[in-house]
């Protein structure tokens, strides 16, 4: 209901508003239409609530298309564009009459901007109908030829009065018409076939004209390559190969005339492309007197010749990169031979007599050579674009010649590194190739590659210096420390705004930095270059470069990292990124969340009851006996008895050990922290029952030493049943008091007494290993010493 009300409001607004005032609200009405479900409303649903407002809207737009004033036609084309973009298939079915009306509007004397809207809207209709055979048959097939004819009339040159005479200039609608043709031709190639003889001369004239804009020339070159789609069936490959061969020969012919002042040392592998060494007339300017093999008009002078050579190279680049309906075979060797010849001609070094200087004819004037040097960077840039296109289109096919290509690029960079565009082109090619080739197997000149990386760092530094200079003065006052944290923090917005206006060389160097750190082995770069690259990555907060440096460290002969890691800088500047988290997490120790102890509830059977505070000590008893205690030397010599009780009931802390006792112990013994009452139930022999064991007669000297241990061990075995293996093996006796409280007592094994031990027999508190029981020295027996006295 709401959308129907909106449609009624739009129709009413179009009806009641004067036509001259409609352009002011055309944008608002188009926005309202875009928010409505037009595909549903334009469906053929007779009797629905929306049929009436939709019919009024269509009728009003049709009347505006046929309006006499340009304001009404402008409003109509704006609304039609909004409807076909958002209305779907049903809206396209209703656009048949609108498309015919817009075709008639192309011939009316409307403003240039309004005619551009006509072209854009009609092109959009033809593109959207290509996937529906019915719509294509009803709209595109009958209307597209009329559109091409009308657009051909729009690109005719315009005669402009200039002084006493007139001069022909290009039409202001040339660029939009070329854009429409390049978009429609691959989709409707058969419709464009009858117009090939009219389209090709227009494009060739734009390519040959020196005064053509770069955009118009690029569109004309692209259209020339797309015209191959309209060739008759089974002749596309033949015409493509013929065009490529003609372009290569035209480049060589143009280069021979343009480089006549240079004594070229390049030798082509193709005998038909050998450089002819003839006598040149340097008194006249170089020129092309006839149409070349590519079909371009003659040229004269170094300026026009350089422009023509760059245009031919751009045409060949577009031909290689443009998709075709069939697979094509390009003579790669001939194309690379062409680039090798063009790139071998460079600007001489500043020093006279340098090793890379070219030889020139004596008759060539200095003015001709200097003018040639001025235009060489433009030609080299076209060559670099051709190489980049070849590498992108053919990929692994060029693997056998990768070494030659890379060395050519390095030589060109060494001679032409002073030019910014040359550096940018070389950076782009290396960034693309480092990911796809193994640089270590190409036998590259290490010094030349280091020079490329060094200039890459310099370009990044200069770009960052420009960013710092462009910051507000308030940010530059005082001592500002430029760190990765500061860039990623408070000045992140400044870096983002600067990235939108970075020069091309900075963008190319930015990509090359991360690619070189990731794929270049450490053997191809010195430690100084690597350190500079790491510093630049940290300074510019280049996270991809820092991660690449971390993943590809320089290894020493021992296989260890020889350079400092950038991991702390990455963590500081990009700790919230998932890539940094994935890099850090495997290096972190595992930390368990929650309690690591498992509580075991203690159960007690019988009448002993339930003891509180023993759960924690029970859990620790199964894994470790914490407290350790040892007999002192003084106790062994004096024979004094020292009984140490276990922790009281319910205590969960550890037992304190005296410092002097723990330090004087040689062989340490363990102490049970707590004993579960269920373990000691029913089988322990009470210490207060004298009838349960026979009293021992005290013996002296060696007799007591020989017989005491077996007797104590036997009594311990009798006191501990098979249910207490731990207590028996450790030499402890469990003593019961009223069946509620248990204590663990330890008896000194070195005691010698004439009286029985009160409360029970002597208890062996040694471990199961008898080697830890201290031996009794007979010489220290106090009883024998008293008898001797």
Report on the architecture of this protein:
There is one protein chain. 53% of the residues lie in helices and 4% in strands. It starts with a helix and ends with a helix. The longest helix is centred in the middle third of the chain and has 29 residues, at 366-394. Among the domains are: 258-269 and 285-349 and 359-416, no CATH class; 444-473 and 483-587, no CATH class; 615-786, no CATH class. The chain is globular. The protein has 789 residues and is mainly alpha-helical. Residues 351-355, 471-500, 595-696, 698-772 and 781-789 have low confidence and may be disordered. The strands form 4 sheets. A two-stranded antiparallel sheet has the order 1-2. Strands 3-4 form a two-stranded antiparallel sheet. Helix 20 crosses helix 24 (504-519) and helix 24 (504-519) packs parallel to helix 26 (543-551). The protein has 34 helices and 8 strands.
Q: By helix and strand content, what is the structural category?
A: mainly alpha
User: What's the overall average pLDDT, rounded?
Assistant: 75
DSSP E strands, number: 8
**Which strand order do you get reading across the main beta sheet?**
1-2
Number of helices: 34
Rg, alpha carbons: 48 Å
Please mark out the parts with pLDDT under 50 across 5 or more consecutive residues, or reply none.
Answer: 351-355, 471-500, 595-696, 698-772, 781-789
Distance between the terminal alpha carbons, to the nearest Å?
126 Å
The biggest beta sheet reads: 2 strands, antiparallel
What is the percent of helical residues? 40-55%
What is the global morphology? globular
Note the beta-strand portion. Answer: under 5%
């Amino acid at each position: 209901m709401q959308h129907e009300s909106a449609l009624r409001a739009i129709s009413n607004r179009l009806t009641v508003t004067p036509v001259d005032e409609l352009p002011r609200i055309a944008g608002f009405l188009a926005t309202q239409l875009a928010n409505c479900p037009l595909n549903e409303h334009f469906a053929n649903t007779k009797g629905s609530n929306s049929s009436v407002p939709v019919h009024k809207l269509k009728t009003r737009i049709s009347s505006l298309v046929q309006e006499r004033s340009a304001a009404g036609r402008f409003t109509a084309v704006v609304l039609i564009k909004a409807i076909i973009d958002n209305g779907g298939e049903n809206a396209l079915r209703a656009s048949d009459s609108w498309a015919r009306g817009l075709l008639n509007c192309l011939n009316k004397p409307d403003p240039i901007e309004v005619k551009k809207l006509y072209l854009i809207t009609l092109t959009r209709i033809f593109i959207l109908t290509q996937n529906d055979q019915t719509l294509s048959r009803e709209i595109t097939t009958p209307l597209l030829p009329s559109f091409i004819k009308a657009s051909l009339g729009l690109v005719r040159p315009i005669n402009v009065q200039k002084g006493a005479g007139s001069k022909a200039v290009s039409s202001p609608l040339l660029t939009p018409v070329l854009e429409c043709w390049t978009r429609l031709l691959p989709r409707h190639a058969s419709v464009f076939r009858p117009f090939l003889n009219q389209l090709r001369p227009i494009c060739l004239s734009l390519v040959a004209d020196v005064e053509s804009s770069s955009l118009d020339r690029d569109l004309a070159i692209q259209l020339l390559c797309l015209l191959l789609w309209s060739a008759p069936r089974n002749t596309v490959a033949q015409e493509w190969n013929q065009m490529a061969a003609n372009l290569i020969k035209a480049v060589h012919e143009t280069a021979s005339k343009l480089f006549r002042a240079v004594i070229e040392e390049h030798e082509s592998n193709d005998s038909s492309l050998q450089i002819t060494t003839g006598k040149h007339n340097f008194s006249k300017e170089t020129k092309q007197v006839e149409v070349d093999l590519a079909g371009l008009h003659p040229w004269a002078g170094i300026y026009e010749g350089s422009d023509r050579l760059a245009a031919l190279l751009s045409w060949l680049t577009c031909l290689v990169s443009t998709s075709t309906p069939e697979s094509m075979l390009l003579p790669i060797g001939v194309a690379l031979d062409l680039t090798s010849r063009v790139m071998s001609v460079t600007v001489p070094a500043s020093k006279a007599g340098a090793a890379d200087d070219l030889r020139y004819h004596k008759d060539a004037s200095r003015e001709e050579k200097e003018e040639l040097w001025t235009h060489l960077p433009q030609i080299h840039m076209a060559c670099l674009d051709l190489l980049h296109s070849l590498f992108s289109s053919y990929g692994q096919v060029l693997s056998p010649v990768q070494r030659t290509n890379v060395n050519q690029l390095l030589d060109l960079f060494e001679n032409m590194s002073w030019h910014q565009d040359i550096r940018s082109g070389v950076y782009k090619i290396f960034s693309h190739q480092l990911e796809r080739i193994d640089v270590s197997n190409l036998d590259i000149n290490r010094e030349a590659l280091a020079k490329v990386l060094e200039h890459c760092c310099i370009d990044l530094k200069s770009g960052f210096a420009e960013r710092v200079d462009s910051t507000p003065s308030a940010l530059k006052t005082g001592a500002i420390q430029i760190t990765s944290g500061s860039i990623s923090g408070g000045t992140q917005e400044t870096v983002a705004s600067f990235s939108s206006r970075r020069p091309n060389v900075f963008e190319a160097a930015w990509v090359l930095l991360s690619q070189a750190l990731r794929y270049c082995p450490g053997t191809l770069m010195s430690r100084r270059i690597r350190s500079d690259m790491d510093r630049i990555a940290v300074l510019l907060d280049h996270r991809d470069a820092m991660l690449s440096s971390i993943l590809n460290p320089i290894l020493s002969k021992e296989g260890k990292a020889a350079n400092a890691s950038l991991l702390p800088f990455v963590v500081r500047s990009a700790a919230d990124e998932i890539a940094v988290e994935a890099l850090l997490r495997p290096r972190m120790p595992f930390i368990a969340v929650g309690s690591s102890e498992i509580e075991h509830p203690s159960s007690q059977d019988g009448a002993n009851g339930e003891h509180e505070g023993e759960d924690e000590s029970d859990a620790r008893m199964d894994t470790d006996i914490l407290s350790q205690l040892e007999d002192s030397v003084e106790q062994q010599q004096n024979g004094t008895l020292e009984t140490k009780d276990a922790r009281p009931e319910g205590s969960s802390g550890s037992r304190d050990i005296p410092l002097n006792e723990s330090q004087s112990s040689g062989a340490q013994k363990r102490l049970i922290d707590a004993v579960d009452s269920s373990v000691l139930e029913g089988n322990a022999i009470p210490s207060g029952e004298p009838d349960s064991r026979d009293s021992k007669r005290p013996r002296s000297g060696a007799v007591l030493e020989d017989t005491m241990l077996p007797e104590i061990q036997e009594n311990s075995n009798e006191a501990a049943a098979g249910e207490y293996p731990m207590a028996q093996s450790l030499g402890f006796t469990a003593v019961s008091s009223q069946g509620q409280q248990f204590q663990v007592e330890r008896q000194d094994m070195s005691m010698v007494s004439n009286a029985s031990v009160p409360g029970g027999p002597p208890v062996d508190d040694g471990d199961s290993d008898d080697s830890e029981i201290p031996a009794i020295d007979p010489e220290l027996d106090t009883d024998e010493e008293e008898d001797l006295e």
